[in-house]
Design goal:
Elements: E1 10-13, H1 14-19, H2 21-31, E2 33-38, E3 41-47, H3 49-61, H4 66-79, H5 84-92, H6 96-111
Length: 112
C-alpha cells in the first residue's frame, strides 16, 4: 500500500463507482483510498482493507476515552453496592465545608 499522506486524494464520481466497481477497487488497492463524490461533493472514502485494518487498530490502541470509561465503570460499580444509598444520603446532607474537605483529601490521596 502506498502512503496517502504525501499524495493527492484520488476522486471519482458516484456514477463511476457504480459502473466501474472493479476498477475502483483496483485503484483503491493501488493508492490506498479514493474519495467518491456525489454532485461534486465528497460523499464517502473507499479505503483498502490494509488501510482500514491499520486505522481501526490505531483507533482502538489510542482510544482517548478508555481511561474515562474505566473510571466511570468503577464509580458506577460503587453505586451498585449494598450501602451506596446510605453513602449518597450522607453526601447530599454534607455542608459545603465538608464537601470541600473531602475533595481536598481525595486530591491529596490521588497525588501520592
Amino acid at each position: 500500500m502506498k502512503s496517502t499522506a504525501k499524495q493527492e486524494s484520488h476522486t471519482r464520481p458516484a456514477s463511476y463507482a457504480k459502473s466501474n466497481w472493479r476498477d475502483l477497487v483496483d485503484e483503491v488497492n493501488t493508492n490506498g483510498e479514493v474519495v467518491v463524490t456525489n454532485y461534486n461533493r465528497p460523499a464517502v472514502v473507499v479505503v483498502s482493507m490494509e488501510l482500514y485494518t491499520k486505522l481501526k487498530k490505531d483507533a482502538t490502541a489510542k482510544d482517548p476515552l478508555a481511561a474515562l470509561r474505566e473510571e466511570f465503570d468503577q464509580r458506577f460499580a460503587e453505586l451498585r453496592k449494598a450501602n451506596a444509598g446510605e453513602k449518597l444520603l450522607k453526601i447530599f446532607a454534607a455542608t459545603p465545608a465538608e464537601i470541600a474537605k473531602a475533595a481536598n483529601d481525595a486530591r491529596r490521596r490521588k497525588s501520592r
